[in-house]
Amino acid sequence: MATFLSYVIELENSVIYESLFEHTLDASYLIDLEGRFTTVNPATIALTGYEERELLNMSFAPIIAPEDVERVINIFDKVKQGESHKFEARIEKKDGELLDLNLSAVPAVIGNQIKGVIGIAKDITERKRAERELIQSREEAIKANQAKSEFLARMSHELRTPMNAILGFAQLLEMGNLTSSQREDVLEIRKAGHHLLNLMNEVLDLARIESGKISLSLEPVELAPLVEDCLALLQPLAEERNIRLSFHAEKHPQKFVQADRTRLKQVILNLISNAIRYNVVNGIVELSYQLNGIDQIRFNVMDKGVGIPDSELDSIFEPFYRIQPSISIEGTGVGLTITKQLVQLMGGKIGVRSKVGEGSLFWIELKKAESPFQTSREALHESIVQPEVEGFFTILYIEDNVANVTLVKRILADYSHFSLVSAQEAVTGINMAVENPPDLILLDLHLPGMDGFEALQRLRTVPSTREIPIVAVSANAMPKDIQDALNRGFEHYITKPLDVPAFIKTITHLLKSKSNTGRVHQWMN
Is the confidence at residue 444, as pLDDT, over 80? Predict the structure, then answer.
């Protein structure tokens, strides 16, 4: 066994080296320049299943798995040229079993000449098998999740048709001459129908999130006005349950977070409505926010309700998990799951602290954003030449973010050529445009209820608005997003945050061909 080894190791302590070679746990071997084994240690014999006499003078190529032979031979040729390599390959044992190996190969140099290759092999079959199983499991999980999401989305859409009939005819019955008992029965049908409709909407949202089909537009969103909007919507629910909502906007400095306004509103509505439903009679829901660290804003929703046991805190964000199911509280069990995923999609975190019998505190953290109003109006106009346009033009801005509308109003305030009107929802904006066609429409792409693309299509089907220039306004600044919007019919695409000179230049260019000096639109904001 020492034929080539004793030739390689020409040292006084060669016996020590040979002993190490013989007893190392890893397979060690020497291969001559023709690719034949000339020396192998016991670990090599055990690894391959061949006897020593079979291996000696046998080429290494036949025991390499067919799919790896060419690659390994190429590596062997490079090692013969003086390179050292570490790589992975599969071999086939004498009994046909395939093994995954981690291999090292270095040139055997004697007297400044390369006489062969020294190799070491380590069996990593179990590790590679575990890796392959993990990859397969992940792929199967992804496929299963996609199938589930597609199924839920299809079912949600399919259920809407019969649900429309159930709720519609229930309302017709309610309008008829019913006894008190019958009216209560119909009311229960409507309540159950609306509960099922809400569940379908939330399941559809969950399916969209899990399948990656939900689109977010991240931009600076001012917290206080958004929270007040949510409180106004939930005030009737709070009054029905005798819950006091506490939020003092004047005590909170103006703060902006980087978020999708529509989805952030959905998150806050869900947290506040949960705090109302899981509260005690005559309870209170306290809302607040503060700077947390250097660049994070934490928004808090605290109730004085039933609280959540410690054993359930890790489960409340799972789909269809209901807190303390013994308590009769309306809900779908999906809201917190959607809330968590939306917060994470916006780059934030969500958490909860609770004590049974004392209440709960839910919080979300989002990245702090700079106010779009930091630059004064004078500074905004310093770099802007008065637009070379004659006439008076009405611009309609359909945008749900009040801060963005306010910013554009400030930008245009000193220009006598422009009058800005706005709508926070697509349907309202479309109705305004149809009744009093503006000269230009600025259209946010991410709106509640109906997005900007659908609004564009509707505006293009109405004769009075068909020819109006419509400009997309969005925080999505990727080239593919811009090109997609232009391909779908927008005249131009303006990205947020606004480049003020470019903004004025764009609207001036689009309006330059118009001359409306004799016409002033009458609008009701």
Answer: yes
